[in-house]
Specification:
single chain, 0% strand
């Protein structure tokens, strides 16, 4: 479940501040999206392992989707790091971090 937070530029705000806020919101959304991606990865690959287990197949064939998709999950984790919901406090904290 993704909530769309409107990124707005107040009329009296510094344009640099508004752009920084927009970047912070974008990063926070990417971080939250990573956890959704990871949950889907674990659920689907867990299901594939169960299929392998209950069919009695000798060779562990689920390693191929686990490894292949795992590369994508690792790349997503590299791009986005975090899981807390997007709140005004987190946006401000991210903006402070980006100012450094």
């Amino acid at each position: 479940m993704t909530t769309d937070y409107k990124v707005y530029k107040p009329t009296n705000a510094d344009p640099a501040e508004a752009e920084l806020r927009q970047r912070a919101v974008k990063r926070l959304r990417a971080k939250a999206g990573f956890w959704t991606h990871l949950a889907i990865y674990l659920a689907v690959n867990g299901f594939l392992v169960l299929i392998w287990f209950f069919t009695g197949a000798g060779y562990f064939w689920p390693i191929f989707p686990i490894a292949g998709w795992g590369i994508g999950v690792a790349a997503n984790a590299w791009d986005a790091f975090g899981s807390e919901p997007v709140t005004e406090e987190r946006i401000q904290r991210e903006m402070d971090h980006l100012r450094r």
